[in-house]
Amino acid sequence: MQGNASVNNNIEIKEYTSYNPDETFPLYKSVGWTNYTDNPKMLENAYNNSLKSYAAYDNEKLIGIIRIVGDGSSIILIQDILIYPDYQRLGIGTRLIKHILNEFKDVYQIQLVTDNIDKTKAFYKSLGFNELADIGCTGFMI
Question: Which fold has domain 5-135?
């Protein structure tokens, strides 16, 4: 499937309103996100307590998802964005991010945390994101 850009025309983005482990769990497993797959109850709680989630579907098959936490007014955090490996690099992640940026365009801060990998940083920068250091900020985690 990879490299078949025409598949993007068949992809539908819609709100993911009801957590379904039968479709989300395999997606997380396919990208190796073991923190979630080793803690399925945490993943379920995360979805049930998220501000919003959107999914990309190829016909009726879930192929990607984005999950948002925050208050929806002053701040949101793009917590999860993942695409099945066979569907990566086809513009689906870009469509999910742009959907969020459009829906939450009036939010004061839109943040995300990601791996410190050049291609990942380049992807988010291409969508208008700045590294915290570039805007005189820093971040902390426990």
Answer: Aminopeptidase (3.40.630)
